[in-house]
Amino acid sequence: MDIDKKAFFDSLGGDDGVARMDDEARADALETHMMSELNSAIAAKKSRGEAAAAKKFPTAAEVEAQIETRKYRSGVGFIMVPRSGENVKRLTPMPSNPKLTDFFQLRFADTGHHCLQSANLAMKNGMSEEVILACLLHDVVQEIMRTDHGWWGAQLFEPYISEKTAFAIRYHQALRYYADPSVGYEYPDLYRELFGADYVPPPYIQATYEMVRKHKWYMEPRMVAVNDLYSFDPNVVVTIEPFEDIIGRHFKQPKEGLGNDGSPVAHMWRTISRPDQPL
Ligand SMILES: [Fe+2]
Ligand SMILES: [Fe+2]
Question: Among 60, 116, 168, 235, which is disulfide-ready with 199 (CB 3.0 to 4.6 Å)?
């Protein structure tokens, strides 16, 4: 620590005051002065840090004010409006009876890495196969729709997966707003960024949280949220291959191909297959 000698001497009554002190009194005075300086420096650093932290995240009103600065709505999916802001690329045609893995390879270009990383983390953390599958699928619907993606995602997969896995996908969205220290889950900074630092989730999210919190399957979506948050790592490249056995055991692949099976969600798969179709 740099000592401002003049300020220190002045605080003790100048050169004369210091001359009247014995060595022990001077040492005590110096120690007191250094402690006080250190405390001031820490307080200043803390308040700078708090100011920076407070500044880092917009308020909910500022997020709202951004709406009219865009040419699109924030809920639109990434295959429709890429976040790069660049022109879209021509897509490789899908096979005639596309499987889930084909979608990972040819359509989930934006969300696929994140979901693969989440599933990889869930596998490393010893999660059940159903939770690993839920992590693998949890955000891919954001290719077509981001708003309420938990509900959209569960619906997209519901005909092909267990009720419990659909439950995990549907409700991971609501649980992300609520911390659970028992499993080390904290409210994510990403949400402060996306929704504003003072954002309060709407009543349906609160009601959903309260329902899920008491549900026997609470830990299913909670584990998706836990393995979700820490999985953005550009240095980790995960492929679909390690999950093919789990997909084989838990994903009822329609023999006609996704989009061709006449299920209530087939049109959603066709939309992902052919997002350039104008109507
Ligand atoms: Fe999500
Ligand atoms: Fe996610």
Answer: 60
